[in-house]
Amino acid sequence: MSTSYQAPPGRLGNLTPEQLKTLEQFRKELTDENWIVPERHDDATLLRFLRARKFDLVKAKEMFIAAEKWRKEFGVDDIVKSVGHRYPSEGDHAAR
């Protein structure tokens, strides 16, 4: 039995060079357009959008922006603040 863990494809620790490049470009574009909230948008989160759209940068970006607009429209951040929720850190993701 092997004790070495290999992350599933398309996840942190197991990205192809092309997927890594797409993640970096995705992060850069979203940062440049002021969509990134560092407390919520770590690489693991961004990768969920990319995987959902098969690493199609344009489609992933559309999905991400639609999700952020939905959060704003329904006041999700205000609700989260009112219940005192904290966002998980990168280390929290790794522990799962």
Please give a structural write-up.
This protein has helices spanning 17-32, 43-52, 57-73, 76-83, 90-95. It has 96 residues and is mainly alpha-helical. It has a single domain, classed as Orthogonal Bundle (Helicase, Ruva Protein, domain 3), CATH 1.10.8. The longest helix has 17 residues, at 57-73. It is globular, with a radius of gyration of 15 Å.
Structural class: mainly alpha
Helix content: 55-70%
Give the CATH H-level superfamily. Answer: N-terminal domain of phosphatidylinositol transfer protein sec14p
Strand count: 0
Q: Which sheet architecture does the biggest sheet show?
A: none
The separation of the N and C termini measures 21 Å
Under CATH, the topology can be stated as Helicase, Ruva Protein, domain 3
- The average pLDDT value, as a whole number, equals 88
List unreliable stretches of 5+ residues.
none
SSE ordering:
HHHHH
User: How many separate domains make up the residues?
Assistant: 1
**What is the name of the CATH architecture?**
Orthogonal Bundle
How many distinct helices? 5
Instruction: Give the CATH level 1 class.
Output: Mainly Alpha
